[in-house]
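Example 3.
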Amino acid sequence: CGRELFSWQLHCADIISTVEFNYSGDLLATGDKGGRVVIFQREQENKSRPHSRGEYNVYSTFQSHEPEFDYLKSLEIEEKINKIRWLPQQNAAHFLLSTNDKTIKLWKISERDKRAEGYNLKDEDGRLRDPFRITALRVPILKPMDLMVEASPRRIFANAHTYHINSISVNSDHETYLSADDLRINLWHLEITDRSFNIVDIKPANMEELTEVITAAEFHPHQCNVFVYSSSKGTIRLCDMRSSALCDRHSKFFEEPEDPSSRSFFSEIISSISDVKFSHSGRYMMTRDYLSVKVWDLNMESRPVETHQVHEYLRSKLCSLYENDCIFDKFECCWNGSDSAIMTGSYNNFFRMFDRDTRRDVTLEASRESSKPRASLKPRKVCTGGKRRKDEISVDSLDFNKKILHTAWHPVDNVIAVAATNNLYIFQDKIN
Amino acid sequence: MPRPRGFEQEAPPPAREWPISGRSARRAQRRPFVDAEWRSLAPPRAVGRSSLSGGKLAAAAVAVAEQRTRRAASRVRIVVTKAPTACWNRGSPLPRFSCGLRVGRTGRRDPDNRSLKDTMFARGLKRKCVGHEEDVEGALAGLKTVSSYSLQRQSLLDMSLVKLQLCHMLVEPNLCRSVLIANTVRQIQEEMTQDGTWRAVAPQAAERAPLDRLVSTEILCRAAWGQEGAHPAPGLGDGHTQGPVSDLCPVTSAQAPRHPQSSAWEMDGPRENRGSFHKSLDQIFETLETKNPSCMEELFSDVDSPYYDLDTVLTGMMGGARSGPCEGLEGLAPATPAPSSSCKSDLGELDHVVEILVET
């Protein structure tokens, strides 16, 4: 019995801005800064090609968003795709939501592998036939053709957000979804594009008093009335839509008390939560702030049940990171299918995985070297001070241009997708 | 807008044998993911016209791959490269730092052969030197009397204000970032107020409640969520094309010798010691709102303490055995700042800064 581990590296023309597996894991969608969406499909296991199972190949590419110009404010609206979320599959077609700063679009991706031949009024090449030449009628028949994947926009949800959309989340009822910007959260119905309901509004009456913004929001995976949103002050609010129409008052408030010994001018900035994700079970949620990942039990608001340090060695460099704006980087995090492991990105193309059961963690690097044949993906280590060992990297040598902000984990298998600037890495751990 | 770019796939190396170990029914116990010994194998698939050698498997692979290529090609042109090293980040810009003060000293390389610009210790912009010898001496004397913590706090404050000013100039500022920076500025101001730092300078403001002095977010970052004022871009653009230094308007206020402590806040010489905290802020924001190239220059020139030395001091502090988490500025013991002779800025660096500002 062997262990086969695969990796693929794909180069994109633009910076990848979001990565998301669908519910089955067969499709992997990436969005980039140029407004394009590229979908990869996992190859079906095929007896004639036993070693190729599980490869991800390009399935469809389409331009989701174009740059726009807001004439009222004289501002350009970026076409960068901020988030992609798949809808659960209900028929042969696939649906996904993609959003830029202002507009959400519902895309339908469908396959066409048959075409009709034998039209009466048209020739095979499409030219209209002269009606006087038609002497007999025939019934068109369907013939197989080369597989073609089409993407068409089905709904466009626009003009509901004054500020930049940072999250979208599909509800477990499969009919509604939420979109969150810096100050408001709206609830949409997938069929209705001209109306949305505002369910959270933290905009103060006087903008001078603004000190906190919404950074991420997500629906509970099973309870369709529950959602959470995180803030720039490191707090998470859980809201129940049954309690009132406007969920400004939270049902639960999660905040870890600050450690007074580590207080600094940067404490608030590094406590700002960049991502929040429910576990698949729905019992836990995970938040990512600048230096750590925290796992919360939904039943305990006072503090997280687990805290994992991602790159604690950066704590002493916060001033430099503030200077070069890296301190504002928004890292995402993700669970594995069984909720036993979590993953998040770091700098220097490093990403970190934490095993919750064994309490072990590993740092890996997504790079060209890792794609060489037979090259093993070595665990990396960052040296924080003193003598640097042979394989270690010192903190000063880290490349802060190379950051891994977006990662995704297959919902069932041990397959991960890691976006490193322009490159997408897919790592797969297969047991033979 | 034309979108000719596509998605490029790394081609596999030439044909290789796959371990045909067969699918055994026995599944090894799944090790925790973190334990997995990751091994990377380049994919053997053939995409398009690849260089795979013959064989049934290869032929089947080619057939499937061609089908997929054709399918994908109907949407976008896929560039297949033979050599794995063919296309590597070619032509795609890496994300830029938005803070113009990231400019570092170019040319120096650390042992890992990486430019300093890319690493942690990107030095801040070298401030324009005060120019007069007596001013330098005065500044030095002033520096000695002020604790380095205050200096560093001041530097942080200046850095934050400049970042907020860059907010004004960006097309669509990031609200979260603006709010976080504004909160940091407010924190510093609160602390400075509590310290009594400002009361010493402006006694008549002592009766003001601290809250009055706190700058509201709206003032700090007016353009972020309230479009007011002229657009800065044309102004900066002109400045850039005509030559950054020559076009910068001379500072309207007299460059009188300044209190290093209050230096950042004082724009006018005669009003130097009279200005209250609030008034000084107003001056700052007037400057910020005019949004012409000279205001940036003013902001830089008014700060005596070498901007980059914040890092030097911090580095120095971190180098000495501190195992605990850094406490930021508050955890630093007083240290003598580096001599201000190194604060002379090159015209070249100023050029660079303005260039960065114009481009952002």
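The mean pLDDT of chain A is 91. The CA atoms of residues 114 and 144 of chain A lie 4 Å apart.
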